[in-house]
Amino acid sequence: MAGEPSDRDLVERFVGGDRDAFAVLVQRHERRVYNLAYRMLGREEDAHDATQDTFLNAFRRMSSFRGDAQFTTWLHRVAINTCYDALRRRKREPALEMDQSAEGDAIPHDHAESTAVSIDVQRALLRVPNEFRAALVLHDVQDLPYDEIAEILGVPVGTVKSRIHRGRVALARELGERPRAVRPSEETTTQ
Asked: What is the pLDDT of residue 71?
């Protein structure tokens, strides 16, 4: 939008002492960070905690943002690291909890069916190894390009492509589907 400061401007203002600039950054990026954390962790409460921790870490480390990458890339990296920390602390168990408030509500059949499928996919996604899940969520859910994912994860683009492919295979296996064979030429042409 015209007239709104860029992320880079807000970071500079924050580092210069303008605390309101950080509030704008949080408001601007909170939803994406939460969605990433939810896909990585599977529980709303954990995703809220991870989102809060991500912004707390960003607040503390903002002076380390050098501007070599976009702010969103740096923030996604902070979020992924925060989620990895949360996963290391958590026992290895299925991590999806049903929202209890929705049980008594009258939900149309179609919505309930799509919700069940969504829950199945989320549960299966949580059983995909972390490094594959991170690449898969960043690409297929957050819709980030390979090069930005590579920067966020600190790995080469080829590794990102491999992790996405392996993540999709693992997800299909968890969903009980037989993954279709992908020709090498198809893998490199899809983004």
From this structure: 92
